[in-house]
Design a protein that fits this description.
- The protein is built from ten helices and seven strands.
- With 333 residues, it is an alpha/beta fold.
- The protein folds into two domains: 150 residues, no CATH class; 154 residues, Alpha-Beta Plaits.
- It has a seven-stranded mixed beta sheet, with helices on both faces.
- The longest helix is centred in the middle third of the chain and has 54 residues.
- The protein is rod-shaped.
- The protein starts with a helix and ends with a strand.
Length: 333
C-alpha cells in the first residue's frame, strides 16, 4: 500500500513538473507576441491555475486518507492567489469549485465517519482568503494600469499637441511650406555643415511677377489660390533633407539646395520657372528667380548668400522679369 502511495505521489509530482515546464514555455512563447496574444496569455494562465489547484486537491485527498493534514492544499491555494491576479467573476468560482471538490472528496473518502471539522474550517478560510487576495491584487494592478495608461495617454496628447505647435511654428499656414522664421533658424546650421564638408550651396529667391496687379484684378482669394498652386510646384523640388522650400513673405519664396553644382542649380531654377509659366499660362503668371551658388567660406555668412541671391532676383525683375539670374549671368525666357 505504501509503495502504491509513493508511486502515486511520484507520478503526481512528475506530472506537475512537466506541466509547469510546458506552461513556462507556452507563457514565454505568448509573451513574445504581446500585445496580440494578451487574451491567450490570460486564458492559459487561468487554465494553468485551475489545473494546479486540482493537482493540489488530489494530492491533499491522498494525504487525508491517512492523516488530517491539508498543508499542501493551503500552500498551493495561497501560492495561486499571489501569482495569479484575477477578476472576481473568475477568481471566486475557481477557488470555490476547488474547495467544493476537496470537501466532497473528503466526505466521500471518510464516508461521513471520523470527520475533522478543522479540515472544513481551515480550507474554507484559506479559500476565502486566497480568492480575496487574488481579487485585491487584481484591483491594485488595475488601478496601477489605469494610472499608467492615463499618464501615457496624456503624454501622447502632449506630444501630439507639441507636434502640431511645431508645425504651426515652422510652416506657413496658407501654403504648408516652411516659413521664414524657420528658415532663419535652420539656415546657419545648414551653412556650417556645408562649410565643414565643403558641399556647395545654392540659394534661390523666387518672386511672382506683377502679383499686385493680379491681386487687384482678381481679388485676394484668387491670389491666395495662386500662391497655393505655386507652393505645390516648389514642394516637388524639396525633400526637407538636402533641399528646402520656404515662403519668404508675401509673393516671395526661397529655396535652398545642397550639393548641386552651378550648372545644376541654374537648370533647376529654369525648370521651376518654365513649369510655373506652363501651369499658369491662362492667367499669364510668371516668376523671376535669382540664384546664388557657391561653397560657403569662413569669411562669408548665410545672410550674405541670401543678400546675393536677392540682388540676382532684383536684376531678374528689372530685366524684363520671367527669367533666371545666376550670379551676374542672365538667361532670357
Amino acid at each position: 500500500m505504501a509503495t502504491s502511495n509513493n508511486m502515486t505521489y511520484f507520478l503526481l509530482y512528475v506530472a506537475l513538473t512537466l506541466f509547469s515546464f510546458a506552461g513556462l514555455w507556452r507563457g514565454w512563447y505568448l509573451r513574445k507576441r504581446l500585445p496580440k496574444s494578451a487574451r491567450n496569455v490570460l486564458l492559459e494562465s487561468i487554465i494553468f491555475c485551475g489545473i494546479f489547484l486540482l493537482w493540489s486537491t488530489v494530492l491533499t485527498l491522498l494525504d487525508l486518507r491517512s492523516s488530517d493534514d491539508p498543508t499542501v492544499f493551503v500552500i498551493t491555494v495561497f501560492t495561486a492567489s499571489i501569482f495569479l491576479h484575477m477578476v472576481p467573476r473568475v477568481s471566486i468560482p475557481l477557488f470555490a469549485v476547488n474547495e467544493a471538490i476537496l470537501l466532497t472528496g473528503y466526505l466521500w473518502m471518510r464516508n461521513g465517519v471520523g470527520l475533522n471539522s478543522g479540515i472544513f474550517i481551515n480550507t474554507m478560510v484559506m479559500t476565502i482568503l486566497a480568492a480575496t487576495l487574488s481579487v485585491m491584487y487584481y484591483c491594485n494592478q488595475s488601478r496601477d494600469y489605469a494610472y499608467v495608461k492615463t499618464i501615457a495617454e496624456k503624454n501622447a496628447e502632449i506630444e501630439r499637441m507639441n507636434q502640431q505647435l511645431k508645425i504651426l511654428v515652422q510652416t506657413d499656414p496658407l501654403t504648408g511650406l516652411l516659413n521664414r522664421r524657420f528658415m532663419d533658424e535652420i539656415l546657419p546650421g545648414i551653412w556650417e555643415q556645408c562649410q565643414k564638408v565643403q558641399k556647395p550651396l545654392a540659394f534661390l529667391m523666387i518672386d511672382i511677377d506683377d502679383f499686385k496687379h493680379y491681386n487687384d484684378q482678381f481679388g485676394h482669394q484668387a491670389g491666395d489660390q495662386c500662391i497655393e498652386k505655386l507652393a505645390k510646384v516648389f514642394q516637388k523640388y524639396s525633400d526637407n533633407a538636402n533641399s528646402f522650400a520656404f515662403r519668404y513673405g508675401g509673393e516671395e519664396f526661397a529655396m535652398v539646395h545642397l550639393g548641386l553644382d552651378k550648372g545644376a542649380s541654374k537648370e533647376l531654377a529654369e525648370t521651376i520657372r518654365q513649369e510655373v509659366e506652363s501651369l499658369f499660362a491662362d492667367q499669364h503668371i510668371t516668376v523671376s528667380v535669382g540664384v546664388y551658388h557657391g561653397l560657403p567660406q569662413s569669411q562669408d555668412t548665410a545672410d550674405a548668400f541670401i543678400h546675393k541671391a536677392d540682388r540676382a532676383l532684383y536684376r531678374a525683375k528689372t530685366n524684363h522679369k520671367n527669367q533666371v539670374v545666376l550670379d551676374s549671368i542672365a538667361t532670357s525666357a
